[in-house]
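Quick check before the chapter quiz. The format below is the same one you will see on the exam, so make sure you can read both the input and the output lines.
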Amino acid sequence: MHSQPSDSADLGDLFHAAFRGLRRTWAEQLAPWDLTPHQWRALMTLMRRRPFGSPTAGGPVVGSPRGQGVAPADSPVGQSVAPADSPAGQGAAAAGDPMRLKDLAERLRIAPRSATEVVDQLEGKGLVRREPDPTDRRATLVTATAAGQRLFATISAERRGKSSEYFARLSAGDRAELARILGELGD
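Here is the expected output.
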C-alpha cells in the first residue's frame, strides 16, 4: 500500500501527506464531541499553558521580540507562553488559568476576530467562559470551565491512543528515529 519514497521525493510533500493523514484521524476523533480542530486547538492552548520561563521537556523557554516566551517546538503545538508580569501570566500561570483573548489569538496564530468566533463557539458549548480582565477593562480573559477541563482530559487520553495506533506501523526504532528527526526540525 505504501511505497518507499525515491531519493528524489520532496520531503516537504511527504511530510505534509503524513500530517494530513494524522490530522484526518484527529478530526474524526473530535466528531463525537462536536468539536472542530480549531476549537480543539483553542481549548488545548488554554489548558497547556506554562508560566513564563518554566522549563519544559525540551529545555528552557526562550524570549521572543514581543516579550512573550515561546515554548520549544517539541512542546504541545509549539505554543508561546505569557510573561510572568503580564496579566495573563502572573508568575504562576498554570493549565486552565485565564488567558487574554488577544494572547490566545497570537498563540493560535490567527486573527483576533477568528479567535473571538472560536471562543464564542466553545462558550456556547459550555467549555470556556469569558470574564473581564481586572487589570485592563478593555481586555477579556478566557478560561476553560470544569466541563472544558474534563473534556480536554478525556480527548487528550484518546488522542494519545490514536497517535500510538497511527505510528504503530513503524518499528520502535523507526519511531525513535522519527522523534529524533522531528525534534531537530522543531528547533
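If your answer matched, good. The chain has six helices and six strands.
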